[in-house]
Amino acid sequence: MTPLRKDAARNFDRIVAVARELVDQGTPLQLNDVARRAGLGVGTVYRHFATTEALLETIATPCLETLTAHGHHALTADNPWHALRTFLERTVEAQVTDPAMVKVVASTTDALPHTTELKHQLQALGKALFARARDAGHVRTTVHDGDIVPLMCGIAYAVHLHGHPTHDRVTTAHRYLDTLLEGLHAS
Amino acid sequence: MTPLRKDAARNFDRIVAVARELVDQGTPLQLNDVARRAGLGVGTVYRHFATTEALLETIATPCLETLTAHGHHALTADNPWHALRTFLERTVEAQVTDPAMVKVVASTTDALPHTTELKHQLQALGKALFARARDAGHVRTTVHDGDIVPLMCGIAYAVHLHGHPTHDRVTTAHRYLDTLLEGLHAS
DNA sequence: CAACAAACGGATAGCTCATCCGGATGTGCT
DNA sequence: AGCACATCCGGATGAGCTATCCGTTTGTTG
Q: Which of B36, B85, B89, B159 suits A26 as a labelling partner, its CA being 20 to 30 A distant?
């Protein structure tokens, strides 16, 4: 794949910057709108991102990468239960803090192959960390390993229903997660 | 308010029937679409239901009423913990079974006053049943009473992410709820 | 400084939502 | 029954958004 032309790269960055701003302030992402705000033609935006979702995924990628990196690291940690716990904490924090993460992690339609790969990794990490904690006898066996990621999304969703400012959301998310973990933990 | 004219009542029922069917089979609710399928003009539909949400709320009302009725009944039950538990079970079951319930209970925008009232009742019932269980010493005190309904919505949401058929969804929902309740329950 | 590929821009077609009002229809009164 | 009025119907229509297409402009390479 030949490198991008200079102007194309500049426009790409502009689009991402504008989109990041819009997402952060909760404005719904509309490609025509992004184009106008970035001072670009609609065609330009659509060439870089075939769909709103593709743009959203690009926005969320850095955060997703950080999260999966942490997950891989957690796999080698000493205490399996603690490793699972912090991984889940990071996961909900990310979703509650960044509106893009919620939509990307929850969405089933895949726009960008790279992001899809990351999502699968995240799912796999959830399963693996869970399995490790379970095999160490730290976890109730009624729960399935595939339940982990959906449950995190559920918590994030529940927090968003409250509609409070970011900081409160993190607190609430921790409270929800703590309750769930208490139920998860082998007594 | 004067009673509806005979034709108006008939059309109202047709619209509701068509909408119910669409919602049940997962088709997105679109008023123009409903009009076409009901063999009515668009204007007719819009006169009865100013917005998609209003129609959705009408669809969900019976289920909501059943749920709040059960909640009121549970308030007088012997065992506060058991009362809370079954109320929450009914709540998630309703949301997982009926697509309309999810959207209505979760939505913050209020279209119909009656439904809004019911939603507030549901919220209040969650709080009251929780408080009763807590005062009886059955519940960990880290959880807030306002967390109850959002958490139920979160579970319903998590279940829907799995995308499985109705019966499996109920099973999954129970598993999630059990885990959460385990964490809620005073040890 | 060509000459070519790559990228741009915005007019525009397609689609859904929601409104508006001339015409049709049910209802009550005589 | 027949009339008059309020109520209700229907669909043409405009506004708003998405996404495409292609003539024009710009960067790059030798």
A: B159
What is the per-residue pLDDT across B26-83, written as a single tens digit (0 to 9) for each?
999 999 999 999 999 999 999 999 999 999 999 999 999 999 999 999 999 999 999 9
Q: Please state the three-class secondary structure of B46-78 as a single string.
A: HHHCCCHHHHHHHHHHHHHHHHHHHHHHHCCCC
pLDDT at A108: 86
Alpha helices in B42-165 (DSSP H): 42-48, 52-74, 80-97, 99-106, 113-135, 148-162
Contact B126, B70 (CB under 8 A): no
Kindly tell me if the per-residue pLDDT of A83 is higher than 70.
yes
Distances (CA, A) of A77 to A128, A186, B11, B130: 13, 19, 64, 38
Q: Report CA(A45)–C1'(D17) in Å, whole number.
A: 15
Task: Report the distance from CA of residue A41 to the C1' of nucleotide C11 in Å, as an integer.
Answer: 11
Beta bridge partners of B185: B139
Q: Is A167 exposed, middle or buried (0-12, 13-18, 19+ CB in 10 A)?
A: exposed
Identify the burial level of B155 via C-beta atoms within 10 angstroms of its C-beta, where 0-12 means exposed, 13-18 middle and 19 or more buried. Answer: buried
CB contact under 8 A, B140 and A183: no
Q: Is the pLDDT of residue A187 over 80?
A: no
Q: What is the pLDDT of residue B54?
A: 96
